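Quick one: structure tokens for this chain, please?
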Amino acid sequence: MKLFIVRHAAAIERTAEVPEEQRYLTPKGRDFMRTTARTMLKKGLEPGLILTSPLIRAVQSADILAETLSYNVPVVVTDQLSPGFDLGALQRLLAEFPQADQLVIVGHEPDLSTVVSALLALKGGFDFKKGSAFKLILDAKFTKPATFKWLVVGKKLKTSQDEAVAL
């Protein structure tokens, strides 16, 4: 299966007035997410399903992605993509939505880089930039490491795994 792992775009900073769950995308974050989505569209992304964390900034990022891709199915909000997401949660999502051959998930750090590192069997971590997206080919049973296809960061496309995780 094709798995697209997307980190939400840049959001407003935490304040006493705005709880963590209510942080929303900045105008620059929205523009950057649109740019990333357009680059993904050029690479032929036609998602079967888009899943997102319930936090506002992730939902907004998923909505921008869906709009840019002309995705005509409702984006699915799932608590499993909330902060604390891990490989176990990914396995549960894959079991819950086995029909999705191109699955897009939108979530948060540090969870997503930890999951990507585990899927690719990376020895160290990396900086998963806000508003960027990985494409991996995944064995849904997790019997072997995923295959890296590309990383999109705005207009930039990285096709080398070493280059992608060195950013």
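The domain at 2-99+109-165 is CATH 3.40.50.1240 (Rossmann fold).
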